[in-house]
Amino acid sequence: MRKELFANLPLEITTDILSRLPPRAIVSCKCVCKSWLKLLNSHEFVKSHLSKSVPGMAVVRSCVESNSYEIFEFEDSLDLEHHHLRYRLVTKFAFPFAEVIRGSANGLLFLTGDQPSDLYICNPITRHYIKLRPDVDSVYSLSQIVAYGFGVSRVTSQHKVVRIVYDYDLETEDSLRVTKSQCEVYTLGTRTWRSIIPGALLMYDTFGIFLNGNLHWLVVDPNAPSQISCFDLETEFFTTFSHPPLMANGGFVGNLSVLAGSLCLCDNSSEDKIVIWVMREYRVETSWAKEYIISKDPNLCGAYVLVFPIKVFEDGDILMECEDFVLFYYSDKTKTTHKIEMFEARGRNHARIDAILHTPSFMSLRGFEIEDVNLF
Q1: pLDDT tens by residue, 115-139
Q2: Sign of CA dihedral 13, 14, 19, 20
Q3: Does the reported pTM lie above 0.85?
Q4: What counts of helices (H) and strands (E) characterise the chain?
C-alpha cells in the first residue's frame, strides 16, 4: 500500500479506508509514516475501526508452567474444505499474572488470577494492561462465592467491572442458604470500588454475560423457579426475567452465552442431546425458541457438564466449548460433533482451555488517565 494514494484524500475517507483493514495490517501501517501513526492512534480512528470490527475469539490454554493466550479471527466462508481453516491467528502472547478470561468488551479482556486481588483489564493488540486497585476487603473465605462481570454502559460508555460476593451456610448436602451478599462496581478511570444494592438471588454463573449494555447471570433460588438476573451497567440496578423451560426440574446443567448477537441458554441436562434456546427478541420472555437440538458424542461431551456455544457459522456449523476442557463443533451437514484438533491440549501438564468471543480493537488504556497502565 502506497501512502501517496492517500495524500489528497480527506482525512475522514482515509480513516474509513484504513479502519477496514485487519489488525495485523493496521499495525504494519503504523510504521509507514508519522502522520499515519498519529492517525491510527487517534480516538476517531479507534472508534471507526471498532464499529467495523467483527467478533473473533480469545483463547487461553492453562498449564502448570504458564498460560498462553491467542486471538483468532473467524473465516466464515461457505466453501472451506476443513473446519480448522475457519480460525486465523491474529496474535499470541503471555500474560503471567492471570489464569481465567472473565469477560470481553470493546476489545478489552477482563482476567482474574489466583488471588481475589488479581483482577486485570488488558488489550491484547496494544499489549497494555491495568491491574485494578484492590479493595481493602478483598480477602474471601471458603464460605463465600464470588461472581464477576465486565461490560460497557450504553449511554456514558463507561467500562465497569462488577463483583458480587455471597456468604452462605450449607443447609443440606445439596443446597445452601445465602446469609449475606454484597455488590461492588469498579469504573475504569476512577480507581475506586463502590458498593451498590446487590441482587437478592444467588448467581449460578461465576461470570456475567455481556449484551446490550447489561450483564446476565443464571440465578438459583431454592424456593422459586430459577431466573436470569440482569444488571444494567448504566443505571446499576438489578432486575430479573424468566428463561425457557429446561429438561430437568431443579439441578439442571445450563448456562448463558451470546450466539449470533442474541442471548442464548444451553441446556446440557440430558445424556444424549444438547438443547440451545435463543431469545429472539431481547427481554421478551415469550420469544425464547428452541433453536438447536444436537445429538452428542458421550466420549467428547458427557451429560451434566457446562457447554458454551460460541459461534454459528454461515454453513450452520456451531463452535462450542465443553467444561473448560475442549473446543468442538457441530456439523450441520453431517449432524455430528467433532473435536477441533488444533485446540487440543499441548503437553502433559495442560490443565484447561477457555474461549470467549472477542472483538479486537486499538482502544488505548491510557485514556483511563488515573489508572496505572503497564506493558506486557
Answers
A1: 888 999 999 999 999 999 887 566 6
A2: positive
A3: yes
A4: 4, 26
